[in-house]
Amino acid sequence: MDAVEIAVRWRDSPQFSALLDRIYAQRWDARWQVWGGIHTEPEDPGEHRWLTRYGELRARMCEELPEPIEVRLGERTYPVEPLVEVEVTDRRTAELLSRYRRRLAAAGEAPDGSAG
After folding, report:
1. pTM of model > 0.70
2. Bridge partners of 91?
3. What are the DSSP calls for 14-49, one per residue?
């Protein structure tokens, strides 16, 4: 994983912008292929990608947050977007899942890990 990807409601944009300022975010400038030099606010034109002192952050701006499912990791539970929703909205995820499914099919396995 090369970045944290989140969904942010447009109405929460002011709070998100304040967070970006607090974590010293630099926005990706696709024109010049560099970080920084443009406004960090999500309302400004450009990709919703920022480099922070914690790593890369990507946001999908939306009117309403997707309905989450809960994923448990150890003792903690996290609300996450269902994979099927991510696959529909993120080309890279769709490509990765497609390769994974082809490999499973070639190995004669079902997606849940059982033999086909």
Report:
1. yes
2. none
3. HHHHHHHHHTT-EEEETTTTEE-SS---TTSSS-SE
